[in-house]
Amino acid sequence: MIDQASSDPGPACQGQVDKNGLGSTTQGAGCDNQYTPIAKEGSTISWGQFAGAVYGGKSRGDGNYNPATTLSRVPVTVDFYTVSFANTHNGLAGGAQCKDEAPAKTAAESEAAYQERITPFLDRCVRVPVIYRFTDNTEKGPFWEEAYRGTTPGYVGAISWLHNLDTKDHGQRALAVGGDSTPRPECPKSETDPPYPDAANGKPADCGGYPRREPAIPTAAGCTEAMVAGSAKPPAVNPDGAPHAPDFTLPGTAVTPHEPEEELTRCEDQWRREHDPAGEGRAWLYSDGGWQDLGTPGDGLPRAMGGATALDAALDVRNCQGATSECAMAGGLQQIWMWKDGEFDAMPWKPDSSPDSPSKPVGFTGGAGQRQEPHPAVPSGVEGACTTSWACQWHYRIRALKFSPSELGGATATTAGCCSESPSFESRSARLL
Length: 433
Prior knowledge:
Helix content is 11%, strand content 23%. It is α+β, with helices and mostly antiparallel strands. It has a 4-stranded antiparallel β-sheet, with no helix packed on it. The chain is globular. The chain starts with a helix and ends in an 18-residue tail after the last strand. Residues 1-11, 15-26, 246-258, 360-387 and 420-429 have low confidence and may be disordered.
């Protein structure tokens, strides 16, 4: 029954309902409800294509959309990853576009043959950051148009309008974040030759460009329980054989790693940072009617900033300590950066606390050099609760970040979770931060 419902949820439900809509399973609710919804054609529930290429190479899309006549000309070389609207008249979409134009379709070429020919080009082309803007306050009516295109490799991974307290700037500034990575020409793109092969085979461990998925850690990385077991350190003991308890009242005292599972996690974390397909961080600011490239790490941006995939602006600047006019946060691989009053903080929140960072391990109290105790919000004895500071850290990429709409409501971030040969829970799970 599970297989039937998964492949054909409508009939599977309908088979349990009589002609009057009554049945023991649905109890009169019918099939199409919040518990057993039935997929619908998007155009029948107010969704319709507005711009861009049509899936499958068809000449027309939903409703009256025709890519040949629309004012919103978005070429097939553009991939969008993010969107943000200030109101019904002003919207932004960001992504990446091939630096070169796609090969043109010949008169004698069928649509299917053309799609087959340009797909490898679109998979491997050098891509640059691109931002489109939606407006609906001109004589032309509503339409999308290119507002910014970079000249160096990279992508826009997240975009958000800023809520500035200055009335002259309110609703007039926006922030975009991303990375400087682009797909590698030699990267495979097929089911038989997957996009993240084992680096030991002489192929790249990641494909580069916008990180659509997390790369699997190859066996060659050495991050398996058997491989790290030899490097694990036994618990420290006193001369009498009793476990040694470090004096956490002394500055700089830290827990010495000794559990094999912790060593495994550290190995995986290090590999992810060294092989992050997102590249180094990039950011752009929309202000005074135009887009400004904010630079690169160490030259306009914080030196340690990696490629970002999440961003949101706070309605209340008090959500960012020290901010007076605007506040936002951006997230990437094991990093959350605070934007306030026109620039990023010098240091990010990271999974591990350090003296020069505002970080605190998620779910734990105490900062660097302090005893790490379970946070009161994580009750002891609860299945899945953190029992060590390293287990409470997040190990993956921030994929979404949203501020609460209420005053001083804080922000919530969600992470990816992916691939490891380890059976440990922490190596496979995503997190809510």
